[in-house]
Each structure stands twice: as C-alpha cells, then as structure tokens.
Write a sequence for this structure.
C-alpha cells in the first residue's frame, strides 16, 4: 500500500498511478479543474481509497443564482447562461428542456473504475455535476458534502452497479429560499413555453440521478435539502436487468421542490424505508410501466410550509405521482407495498392517473386542519383525499373523478389505515373507491406540525395493524403479524427487523 498526497497542481498526473490498496490524499487547496479517474481498479479486500485532508475543496467557480434578478456581475449569471445555451440546442418536437444532456460533465469523473472508496470530499459551485460515474462498479462514497450544482451524483452505463452512498449531504440552493419560496415549479421544470425563463432549469437535477444502470444501489444516512429532486433513476427500455435492487433508507429529504424518490419506467426490488420527508412536493413518483417487489415502509412525512410564490399552480403536491390516464402501466410482477408509514398531510394522497399493484396497508395519516399552522396556515381546508385541486380553487368540497376507481382491474388496495379525513372511509366508498376496513380517526401524533409523528397515549393506531403478507423476489414470503401499531411508531418493538434483513444491500468495501 502506498499513500500519495496530491495537490491541485499534481492531481491530474497522480490519478493515473493508483493501484490496489493505494491511498490518494487530497492536500489542502482549491481544486478548480475537473479530474477524471479512468480505469482505477482496486480488488476485493484491497480497494483504492481517495480521501481529503482538511481544507481540500473542489470548486469550479460556477455558483448557482441566489436571487431572482441576476445580472452579468452577479453570482449565478454564468450558470444561467450555460443553462440557456444547453436548452437552445434541444429539439422542442422530441426533447424536454433541461440540462440533463450535460449531466456527465462531473467535476470528478470515474470511468471504468471498480473497488474504489471516496471519502470526505467537499464540492462547491460545481455545475452541472459534482461526481459522475460511467461503467463503474463496487464504488463507495462516504461523507461527501456538496453545495450547488444540478446533480450531486450522476451514474450511467449498464455495467454500473454496487454503489454505496453513505452519510453524504447536498444543499442545492444555499440561500434556502430562492428555489423553495420564490421560483414557480414550472420555471424549473415546465414544458416548452411554460416557464418564465430557461435559465432556472439549472436547478432541474437530482442528488442521485441514474440512466440505465444495472442497480445494486444503497443510499443510507444522507441529507438532501433545498433541492429539486432526490433519488431519480431511469430505465427507458424497461429492461428487467436494470434498476434492480435499489435501497434508500435512514435519509432526510427537506424542502424538495419536486420528488424525493422518483422511479421511472421500470424497477424491481426497491426498498424505501425509515426516511423523513419534510416539506416535499410529491414524495413518491412511481410512473412505472413495469414494476415488481417494491417496499415502502416506516417513512415519516410532514410539512410546515408551502412551496413557490403565491398562486403557483404546482404547489399543492401529493403523496404519490402515477401515470396519467392515457398512459397505463403494463405489468406488476409483485405489488408495490406501502405500509406502516406515518404521514402528516397538507395535500392529497393521489391527484390523478393509474398504478398497478398498489397495496396501501396500515398507514397512519393525519390531514392538517384549520387549527394547524397558525398564524400561517399550512393547509387547504380539507384537501381531497383523491383528486386535484388547484390553489385557485381552494374551497372545492369534493375531489373530481380523476384517480382511477378500477381498483380490481389494477389490483389497488387501501386496507387498515387510520386516517382523519372527513371523507374516509364512507365518503370514498360512496364515490366508488373500494376502500377496505380502516378507521376514520385522528392517529394522534404527538406533534404533527413540528415533525414528531410518535403516537400519543390513546391513539387508535396502537395494536390495530392488520396482518400483512409480503411477497419476496426470492425466498419465502414475509408476514407481519396483526396487532402491531398502525404507522411508523412501534414503541420498543421491532417487528420489521426480519423484513429488513431481506432487503438488498451494498456492504461497505472495507
């Protein structure tokens, strides 16, 4: 093993001389030039390590905008101009506007690498991407801190697999106000002609973005805040060997303008558990044509503010985002299990569309009401359980008929939930939604407007969960017993430990 200490002036040459077991330490200084690690390969038990000494920072000098009016001398001007240039070369007839075609331009690029540990690096003002990976496997990232940019991590290639991202942080908008409070959603992600200016698409990215990768991804203990998206994977061809075995757990997603979790096209064996969603738009985007073995459990979500400027039509949000009515899902090999989560809601559950195989079981849900959030209310008075309501129509008494009622056709089930909405469950049944046994009651969270979703004494959730049998992708089914608590809070009991042992995992390399 050799320990090499590099500097901003020598790193380009030092990266080509790394061998199994070597350690590359980044000495203090500002690393302004992009660096590529090509074919750096450790071996099992002898990974290559790349780590930072105190004071080592990657900074490309491409700051994100920090105000609505940006002039040539302001921070963010160059990023906005680059974004506009990237959008101008796209074809409006076939392409969505955005900077996604630049996402592989990472400040740190790994190409054809394997068995590499990267730890303690800091990235500031690196646009569009901090870390990009192409055809890499067995890669571990620990304690990476990222500020700014469109993408934290970008991964590509069908050979990209076995990625572990642990204890990393990303704050995309360091003002903590511009993206969440001042920009309309469409300014960042609207279709052609829907935005106020294509420069704001510089925010249209994700903490972890992946295109057609094999899978085997574990993201654990990370904090993503004041950002547009969290974890976002594409599998456009619907291949069954891609987007397999993704696990996101024990993470915090705060002030996410779009989706903390976004699975596109086709996924298999995804596990989303023990995360916190705080002030997020649509938490679970599952626009999936093909899907199998998805487990979403023990997550908590709450809100204490609403996004966007006043009148933003995309500020209402939802728990789920599904395919629209003209684009129905094709296949579900096993259900999408959503169970034992605790939600405190200022929005509807589902606005519109179709999903195949959704089993929504034993969740505790409290809709915010008129007494919550004073003196600045965070609710729309009794938001529909299912359906759309624009902010221009805040007093619509009942939701329109725009989430499918064909639950038998699409294998959709809502069973055993405890929910305080006035239309649950009788009103929903009268409207044609086949809600099964559950309690129309306040789950009695300790402090739902400040994020404590523990159960208070006397909660109707205590010991009321229904028995739930979960099909596994491999091996025997797992059964959660009746009589545990509805929702996230299980007190001192640990009924999910056996289930978690069946989750896909990417173990640390060393």
């Amino acid at each position: 093993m050799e320990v090499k200490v590099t500097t901003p002036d020598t790193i380009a040459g030092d990266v080509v001389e790394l061998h199994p077991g070597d350690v590359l330490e980044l000495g203090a200084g500002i690393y302004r030039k992009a660096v590529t690690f090509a074919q750096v390969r450790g071996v099992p038990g002898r990974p290559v390590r790349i780590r930072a000494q105190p004071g080592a920072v990657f900074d490309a000098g491409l700051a994100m905008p920090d105000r609505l009016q940006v002039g040539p001398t302001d921070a963010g001007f160059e990023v906005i101009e680059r974004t506009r240039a990237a959008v101008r070369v796209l074809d409006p007839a076939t392409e969505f506007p955005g900077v996604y075609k630049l996402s592989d331009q990472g400040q740190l690029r790994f190409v054809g690498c394997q068995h590499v540990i990267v730890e303690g690096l800091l990235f500031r003002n690196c646009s569009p991407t901090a870390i990009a990976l192409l055809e890499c496997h067995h890669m571990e990232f620990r304690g990476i801190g990222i500020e700014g940019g469109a993408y934290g991590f970008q991964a590509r290639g069908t050979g990209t697999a076995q990625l572990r991202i642990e204890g990393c942080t990303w704050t995309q908008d360091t003002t903590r106000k511009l993206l969440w409070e001042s920009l309309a959603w469409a300014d960042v992600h609207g279709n052609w002609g829907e935005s106020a200016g294509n420069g704001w698409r510089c925010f249209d990215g994700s903490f972890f973005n992946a295109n057609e990768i094999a899978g085997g991804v574990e993201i654990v203990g990370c904090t993503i805040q004041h950002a547009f998206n969290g974890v976002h994977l594409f599998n456009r061809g619907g291949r069954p060997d891609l987007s397999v075995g993704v696990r996101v757990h024990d993470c915090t997603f705060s002030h996410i303008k779009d989706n903390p979790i976004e699975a596109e096209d086709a996924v298999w064996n995804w596990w989303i558990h023990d995360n916190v969603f705080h002030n997020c738009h649509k938490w679970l985007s599952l626009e999936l044509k093909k899907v199998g073995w998805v487990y979403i459990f023990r997550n908590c979500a709450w809100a204490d503010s609403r996004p966007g400027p006043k009148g933003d039509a995309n500020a209402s949000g939802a728990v789920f985002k599904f395919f629209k009515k003209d684009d129905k899902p094709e296949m579900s090999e096993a259900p999408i299990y959503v169970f034992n989560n605790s939600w405190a809601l200022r929005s509807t559950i589902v606005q519109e569309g179709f999903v195949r195989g959704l089993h929504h079981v034993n969740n505790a849900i409290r809709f915010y009401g008129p007494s919550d959030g004073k003196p600045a209310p965070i609710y729309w008075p009794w938001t529909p359980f299912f359906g759309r309501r624009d902010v221009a129509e805040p007093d619509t008494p009942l939701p329109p008929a725009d989430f499918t009622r064909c639950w038998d056709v699409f294998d959709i089930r809502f069973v055993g939930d405890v929910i305080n909405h006035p239309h649950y469950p009788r009103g929903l049944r009268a409207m044609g939604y086949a809600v099964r046994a559950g309690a129309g009651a306040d789950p009695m969270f300790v402090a739902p407007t400040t994020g404590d979703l523990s159960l208070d004494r006397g909660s109707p959730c205590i010991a009321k969960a229904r028995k739930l049998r979960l099909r596994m992708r491999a091996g025997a089914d797992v059964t959660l017993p009746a009589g545990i608590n509805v929702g996230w809070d299980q007190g001192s009991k640990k009924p999910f430990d056996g289930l978690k042992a069946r989750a896909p995992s990417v173990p640390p390399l060393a």
Summary: The radius of gyration is 23 Å. The longest helix spans residues 77-88. Helices lie at 11-14, 77-88, 178-182, 185-189, 407-410, 426-430, 497-500. Confidence is low (pLDDT under 50) at residues 390-394.
